[in-house]
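Lab meeting prep.
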Amino acid sequence: MSQKGETIVRFENVSFEHSVNKPILDEVSFGVRRGSKITLMGQNGAGKSTLFGLITEVTTPEDGEIHLVPRLSIAISRQVIPRDQLELTTREFFEKSFSEKVYDIDPKIDEVLEVVNLVAPKDKLIKDFSGGQQARLLLASALIQNPDLLLLDEPTNNLDKEGIEHLKRFLIDYKKTVIVISHDADFLNAFTQGVLYLDVFTKKIEQYTGNYNDVLREITARVEKEVRKNAQYEKHIQEKKDKANFFANKGGRMRVLAKRMRESAAEAEESKVDVRREDKTIRKFTIDVKTSHVGEILNIKSLSVMKNHKPVEREANVSLMKKRHLLLTGPNGIGKSTLLEHLAHDTESGAKISEDVVVGYYRQDFSTLDFDETVYKTLEKVMDKPDEHAMRSVAAGFLINGDLIYSKVGSLSEGQKGLVAFAQLVLLKPNLLILDEPTNHINFRHLPIIAKALDQYEGAMVLVSHVPEFVSQIRIDETLDLESLKPLKKK
């Protein structure tokens, strides 16, 4: 019989590495109790999603042991829907959530879609849902399994404000065990009872009680204490070294005393603690414009939005010149991502990009990146002419260092793919930026730097973002609410 509070997942000295010389975990030990709501935090690429893979037994550790209580059912809501599932219907997608065939699955689908506040025809293809709707489908596909342990990987990505509030309320009331990966502090503070922090430097997991704000205060206090302690050791070390040098110059028996002083200094050196290093942040950057475009860059007279899962035409009156930033708003499912794709490829019938305009397009699913290509080739191909020094300098600014630049894009974490996409934009130097949820998967430490770069961007920009705090840091000259646009008058 299960007990609330019993440890249902236990890591004992677990070590894991993706490949040779790429360690992720080093002798990690921690436990997760039944009914707890835990946040898993760490820098982009630290290995948070890998930890989920170890819990679900998709991957196995090199050393150590992972203990799960008998018959523990686990379901995971991933960051993105796998590409090979995009052609499935809604019903087929949910059927794949189970290892065995489930008869009369439709009522279960209806029930779980109500929980995530989504209307989804069962014969509609997954690829035809918006990013926000796909995020709700991912959550629903985990919930329909009614697991003992629910793993959520960046569940707020692509969700609008209403969707985030709905998920927050659900998790507050949820009675079972949850581990969440997220960079959204406000969201986490609403329900988190503890934090597992994966330190990208030490490859260890630090376990804390309390919410995100509690953990930040505790870490800050600990760092300050360690710095003070090390300062005392440094003072002691310097005193012993000075005395050792003094006695050594005296010769004779004094040299023995000098030796003891040096040994004492060495002991103090070993006693110094390794102060916890903060996550690295990306360097400040600018997205330059290759050639200054004179006159109008983008004109939108009408556009297509989704209403009850069907496209409808709406009137618009937008003329974007350089230094003009447009924010597109509207609820999940209205077709913002589809609209941005059509704008980026100049295939929206009521919109037109002027000739010779270089378009920089950031897609929330990173499908503009070739997952089979290396990061090196991905960045090199957007440059007018190869310049390895310039390319490596830009890459390093986005924490793409060492062997990482020769990794295939598909092997990177979602956050690292986002940084590669931004590095591409810097090297491309576009006249028109089209950005679809650029905060998704990105470490919160990087967001103010990205916002500053977008705020200072000198070209024309079209932005979609559901993160008000991020948008508030960017100069927005015009906002277009897709839901309030009037129907297009037929001629």
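Slide two material, second protein:
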Amino acid sequence: MIGEQEIGLEQKILAIAEQLFLEKGFAMTSTTEIAKKAGCNQALVHYYFRTKENLFQSIFEQKIRLLISTFQESEMPDMTFEEKLKVKIESHFEMVRANPRLPFLVVNEFTTNPARIDSFRKKISELPNLVFTRLQADLEAEIQAGRVRPISVFDLLLNVVSLNAMLFLTGAIFKNVAQLNEAQFEQMIEHRKQEHVRVILASIRP
């Protein structure tokens, strides 16, 4: 039977590994560094996860699932389509805001290791369908009613992801160029969230 101390150490290793992977990427992170920061020896990292690849995949898959699930349908029966879409845009924005290095990690890993795309597509193949089927049905109904211009669910979601992800991919650069302090930067981030909602909603109206 696994003790609480072992569970705690395993979770600590996961947390440290996640932090390092997000900061440095897969290639530049070593199990030696993970073990050192977690306060254990390297053998324990391998005991729990066997390889760095297994550890990375465990974290990366969880983050990808979390990104996709921000678009998942929730109980919003009394909301209009635009109100539901606003919630989805803001939910995705806040998830990326809480994990600002995640867009860089996703782009970097999928670019430098294309095989990872196929691997994760197979693992989470059911999730996009579950999440997007309802959104597509709602979108098509709005188009038929004339309240939304003809647009595919793919284009709509790509607009959302592109706007939200790019802000955090370039945010640090803009912060330094514009010489913003932390309070000003947070104000800018909050403003951009509302601006993204306005831009996307305006873009789908007839």
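Talking points for slide two:
Residues 53-204 form a domain with the Tetracycline Repressor; domain 2 fold (CATH 1.10.357.10).
The chain has two domains: 1-50, 53-204.
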